[in-house]
Structures are given as C-alpha cells and as structure tokens.
Amino acid sequence: MDKYNSEWFDQDWLRFKFESLRRKDNFEPDAQKYQELLMRANLDGARDFNLKVSEAMVETDSLAAMVMGEKPSRFYFRFGAKVLDALAERLVLAEAGYLLDEGINPMDHLDAVFFPSGMGAIYTLTEFMAESIDDLDRARLRVKLADEGVDERPLFVQGNVVYVNTNNVLGERMRNKVIAPSIKVDTTDLMKVGKVLKQLGDRCFGLYFEPLTNPDIRYTNTKSMALLGSSYQIPVIVDNTFLTPYLQQPFRMGADVVIHSLTKYGNGFGDMLAGAIIGPKALISAIKLWQYDSGNVTQSPDSAIKLYDRISDMPSRMDTQAGNAKAIANYLKGSEYVDKVHYPDLEDETRGGLAGAVISFILAGQTLEERTAKERALMQYNIDHPGVINHEVSLGDNVNLMIGENTLGFPNVDSNAGFVRFAVGRTPDAEKTIKFLEKALTEVYK
Predict the structure, then answer these.
(1) HSE on the CB side for 446, CA within 13 Å?
(2) Do 188 and 218 contact (CB within 8 A), yes or no?
(3) Neighbours of 91 (CB within 10 A)
(4) CA 156 – CA 205 distance, rounded (Å)
(5) Per-residue model confidence (pLDDT) at position 176
C-alpha cells in the first residue's frame, strides 16, 4: 500500500474500485442514457443563492461543524454552497453515473471539488499529496540526501508529454516539498513505465498522465496504466480534459483520481476559468479542508451556476466539435501541404473512436527553416483573414483556435518545425473550415 496516501488510498477504496467502478466498456455506450444521467443532478433552490457569497445560518452552535465538514457548509461560499454541491453531483454523475444501474449512489463514494482554473486543481492535488510526508520523514530524507548522497525522496512518475505548466508543477516546484522532480516516461509504452516503477519501488508517489497528450495527441490506455498502478499500489491520476467523460470515463478503466480543466469543454464558450478534481470521498473531503485555508476556490456562485448549466450540454457540444475535428483531420491527411497529422482513430477506446476535438499537424517542407516559415505564414494568414480560424491559445471554445508551436516567440522550442495545434470549434462547420484551410494553404505554398 502507498505509505504516503494511506488516508484515502486504502483497502476500502481499492475494493470499491475493483468491485464496482471498473467496467469492460470505457464509456457509457448509450449516449441518450448518458445525457439523462447528467440531468439527474438537482440544483434544489441553489439559484436563489447566485448573487451572494454568504448565507444565513439556521442553527446556533453549527459553524464549527460546517467548517470541519461534519455538516454541509452553508454559511460562506469559500467553505461550500448548495450550488457547489449540485455541481459536484453533476460532475460525479458525468464520470460515474453508471453506478446507479446497480443501485449504488456514486456520491456515497466519490466527490468533486472545484478551483479557479485547471492548473489550480493540478497544483492543489500535488501540493496536498506532498503534505502527506510527515516532519520526521522529511528530516530523514534531507539527511539521507545531504550527508549520505542517497536520494530516497518520493516523486511522481508522469507522462513525458503533458501540459507545459503541469511539467513545472510536477518537476522543479516539488523540490521545496522534499519531493524529487518527477520522472518522465512515455506512457504509450507499457514496458517502459513498468521498468521505471520497478526501479523506484515505494518511492513513487503517483502515476500522472493525459490519455491524449497536449499538444501531439498521442493516446495512452488508462486500463494499462491502472493495471501497473495496482501492481505497485500507487494512485493513478488522469487529466481527462481533452477527451471529457462523454468520450471516455477513466474510473471505468481503473483510475483513482480524475482532473479536468473545466475552462475547456466543461464550459465550452471560452469565457471563464475553472478546474476540478474528482476522486474518493475521503480524498476530496481532506482537500476541501486544505482548500479553505489556501483560498484556491471557485470565485463566485455565478461561475458555479454557469458551469452547472453548461456541463449538461457537453455531450452535444462534443458530438459537434469532435465530429468537425475528425472531418478536418481527414482532409489534412490528404493535403499535399501537410507532412503528418496527429489525430488517431481510437476505435473502441472512445465513443465513436473520436480523439477529441484537437488536431496537431506538421506542415510540409524540405528544411526546418522552410517548415517554420510556412508555419509563420499560415498563422499570419489566419490573423489577416479573421472569422474562421483565430490565432489564439486554449481549446474547447465555440470557435476554431490555432497556434504554431514554433512561432510563439519562445526560444529553443522542442516541437518539430512546422508543428501546428488546431483546437476545432463548433462554428463554422467542418465544410466551411476545410474550404478556408484549402485557400489558406494554397496561398501559403504558392
């Protein structure tokens, strides 16, 4: 058993995960049923609270119990609110509503907690896990390293390609917590991951990865990672932002914790930041207590209500966006101006085999300099011809967003020259976007 996460990663959780959460299918095969599950969450009058950050208490001597989580927090928004409870229920149903088929209420075992951004969620989870090292163990680890040159510090094992700021959090920022910077490994290669975990023994703090990597859209099988996590008794943490629980549900596949940047597809309109952690009830309860002090919370009741409403529409949005992405990827694969397209057919791994709504591709060119020049020219074309593809970061928005990885002004970029990330939107449709791309690429290569 993982000695650092034992307060929540225990036999009760593992038994529930293996006996109840895991499923053969990676997603709810009935899309209509999935939509109906989302709608079962009940706001129950919470809209009346949408313009206030405090609420009248109905009992004396009750505040301490609310602060400690012994009673539902109903006095100040940082400590909880009806709308946050409803939002948590909706997100848990999105991830594990299938348990209701067996008469199991997923809210009895899982919960969700919310943050002002996806990175807020990632940072809080890793900081919280780091805090599980007690003072005596910290002192011992420091002495071992300083006096004996023996490094026994725990660390995360992470996918070798994850979001850039996630790299920073799992890497250098862990040093201040007496945790070694993470080890990066290609999680698409089961043998490599297994070899690293075997070498580390009980030093591994957790296995962290993105099923679809950002930005090169390579797929990691969560079931395979979960089997390794079980073998070495370590938590498996999945950032499922790109796929969403509509296309794939990591708890069905053996994950212990799921993270989302709800800024993206959970929101769907690019007009607010939000993040979430979904996991065992014991973990989320502990994080909430820790969160009260950090203040790293959802910023307003209005934001929570907006997310509550928009998550219910996520399936239809993803059908449109991922469908557009698949059609555009097929066009790009046949274009003479594109050397390589990263948008795999995931077959039975996801709903419809869809790899989300982000495409990456490498522009054609004989040299690195030529490909970089074409990348820059394509970005400039988008800037000069607004309305179809915006030269803009982020993803999950209603509109198309495209960036060139080597033409953002950063020195020493690791990406291949001519590397483009295209976050496909819902409007305009795929046909109009393809016509625009045809014209743009023809102009760039004339």
Answers:
(1) 6
(2) yes
(3) 28
(4) 5
(5) 66
Residue 204, beta-bridge partner list = 155
Phi, psi of 9 (to 5 degrees): -90, 75
Helix (H, G, I), strand (E, B) or coil at 152: coil
Question: Which uninterrupted H or E stretch holds 389?
Answer: strand 389-391
Query: For residue 311, which of 352, 276, 351 has the smallest C-alpha distance?
Result: 276
Residue 51: which pLDDT band, with cuts at 50, 70 and 90?
Answer: low
Asked if residue 365 lies in contact with residue 396, where contact means CB atoms within 8 angstroms, the answer is no
Q: Which of 87, 396, 425 is nearest to 268 (CA)?
A: 396
Mean pLDDT for all residues in the chain: 91
Per-residue tokens: 410: 């950063």
Q: Where does the pLDDT of residue 22 fall: very low under 50, low under 70, confident under 90, or very high at 90 and above?
A: very high
Confidence (pLDDT) at 394: 95
Beta strands 338-342; 358-363: pairing state: antiparallel
> Sorting pLDDT into bands at 50, 70 and 90, what band is 166?
very high
Which helix (H) or strand (E) is 170 found in, with range?
A: helix 164-170
**Amino acid sitting at position 347:** E
373 falls in which pLDDT band (50, 70, 90)? Answer: very high
Percent of the chain with pLDDT over 70: 96
CB atoms within 10 A of CB 393: 11
The tens digit of pLDDT for each residue in 224-254 reads 999 999 999 999 999 999 999 999 999 999 9
Say what angle helices 281-294 and 118-130 make with each other, to 10 degrees.
Answer: 100
In order of 36, 207, 360, 391, the CA distances from 419 in angstroms are: 40, 28, 7, 14
| Beta bridge pairs of residue 158 | 184, 208
Q: Which two tokens stand for residue 364?
A: 């054609």
Taking CA atoms, 70 is separated from 5, 49, 136, 157, 345, in Å, by 22, 22, 30, 35, 47
| Whether residue 2 has pLDDT greater than 70 | no
Long-range contacts at 3-10 (CB < 8 A, ≥ 24 apart): 3/202, 4/129, 4/132, 4/133, 4/154, 4/205, 5/129, 5/132, 5/205, 5/206, 5/235, 7/132, 7/282, 7/286, 8/279, 8/280, 8/282, 8/283, 8/286, 9/235, 9/256, 9/280, 9/283, 10/282
Question: Who contacts 217 (Cβ-Cβ below 8 Å, separation ≥6)?
Answer: 242, 342, 343, 344, 355, 356, 358, 359, 360
Q: Is there a contact between 222 and 236 (Cβ–Cβ < 8 Å)?
A: yes
Structural domains in the chain, sorted by start? 11-311 (3.40.640.10), 314-444 (3.90.1150.10)
The predicted structure's pLDDT at residue 299: 75
pLDDT(285) > 80 = yes
Instruction: Give the model's pLDDT for residue 287.
Output: 94
